[in-house]
Amino acid sequence: MKVLNTRLITPRLCGLLLLIALPLVSLLGLMTGPVFIPLADILSITLSGDGGNSQETLIIEIIRLPRVILSLLVGALLATCGALLQGLFRNPLADPALIGVSAGASVGASVVIVFGSMFTAGGLLLGLSAISVGAFAGAIITSVIIFRLATGPQGTSVATMLLAGIAISALAGAATNTLSYLADNDMLRRISLWQMGNLQGASWDRVGLCALTAAFLALLIPREAGALNAMLLGESEARHLGVNVEWLKRRLIIYSALGVAISVAVAGVIAFVGLMVPHVIRLLVGPDHRALLPLSALAGAILLVAADALARVVIAPAELPVGVVTALLGAPFFLWLLVVQRRRT
Amino acid sequence: MLKIDSVGLIISAVPLLNNISIDCPRGSVTALMGPNGAGKTSLLKVISGEHKASQGRVEVNRQSREEWKPADIAQFMAVLPQSSTLEFAFTSEEVVALGRTPHATGTVRDAEIITGALAKVDASYLAQRSFVQLSGGEKQRVQLARVLAQIWDHCEPGGDGESNAPADGILLLDEPSAAFDLAHQLMLIDIVQQISAQGVTVVMVMHDLNLAAKCADQMVFMNCGHCTAVGTVTELLTPDLIKKVFSVDVEVITHPVQGTPMVVV
Fold first, then answer.
1. Domains, chain A, ranges and CATH?
2. Domains observed in chain B
3. Who among B70, B87, B94 is closest to A242 (CB)?
4. Above 0.95 for ipTM, yes or no?
5. Which of B72, B81, B98 has the CB atom closest to A236's CB atom?
6. CB-CB contact of A193 with A110 (8 Å)
7. What is the pLDDT of residues A117-146, one digit of tens each?
8. Is residue A186 helix, strand or coil?
């Protein structure tokens, strides 16, 4: 009987490669944009606090550094939440959109854009615009509705959640379309741009908010890795292995709804990161969540910084929405992977 | 060790189990048998805690089943379901490693146990293979290794078992041999006999009367959610009783060497 090695690289090597790539890609993200800033200037600005001319210092400190850090955090959040949800649904094709977060966020954001005048009086909250607050609220409300629909006396059924998620997403999509129909040209453009996702609104406040969320989740999520592995066998199997499945499901849903809602609030809907990154990492190192979760976070961070850098240069001085870049690059890459995987097995 | 006391189960107004009482002492092997839909798996699920009994109670180690915390009972009770739906490309070794989830015995000891469990079910050569690519019988063997790994310290003679283990082992098997070839069916019987000799209480759903007769201390005939008969192999394997439960005419003869009853269709 021939022995098939199903893994391409060890988790350790994968982690090492990603840790090397992370600072390199981040530097690249700081260099690129409408104004090119050479590496030497970036190092002197970020390390010593001055050097270069004052314009470059301003660009780095106010625009690019928060933007790169925000991309890192949002990428890590999306990829980790994708991995959590794929584990929860025991389906490698699950993605954050399944729990209705993206669709709900779109409704929230559209409501604010269309009926904006009523909300702008409140000004900024924690560095978030009214649109972001609307998106966050929409995301949380939809995921709560879907969770409640799927929870009965027998516990939460992930199968019902999947169906409820599809139905609620369709409903939310219809609501967003209605709002788009009511909207004038300017509002319409803002709605559709928001739905494509972008990191233009990066600020230190947003970085702080995202960093807090990421730190909170980074403390809690790794503890679930063993239970998530057991969950892949099936819910009753996990129960027989001593996992309190009902509470685990609740925690996972809360973590992923929170993570995705925050990233959607600060960056709009960014497609494919949550679906693709964990999938690729799983192909490389296997499905063990103890490796999958941290590696997905790293890879998601790298991917989004790179995609955002690209978004800033392809049609410079204008910018592509980063969600378009992730989808444009992600979808073909993902398809290629599927074909390769099919041939290998 | 395991006591099922007048258990009834009703799900969505359908009565699935009715007044079932079975006593499984430490180290005994109980075979649950009966036609499809008799309630064998439902009974197993009541014992494993997946269904809550509507009437009566299940006692595990002199304590009501419901009072056990999942994490505590998983230390000594393992369950092998009928089929597995694992879609993720774990290696066989990693699947068996999942059996160690309830324990904190450390990676060195766990690695020993995993190797031992795979060897026990004749699946050492599958260790590095992707689980999703295995055949049905191979998958079931790896899953069997997983549940053995879970209660390994209760299965092995002189194993440096956890001193704080709250009870002796219990193993619930749902049609464990359905996908096995003849050699592995006999291997299963061997394993069941070995671990029950170490004090593990085994309850298994089986269809093959002769296979069950080889290792069961106690047989339970079930029909339409009722317990038709409980007794030793010799008491239950009679043409009349088999006709009554399974609606088939059979002859029962004595095994020429082992002297156990054998059912001939």
1. 11-27+36-320 (1.10.3470.10)
2. 2-264 (3.40.50.300)
3. B70
4. no
5. B81
6. no
7. 555 545 555 556 788 888 888 888 888 888
8. helix
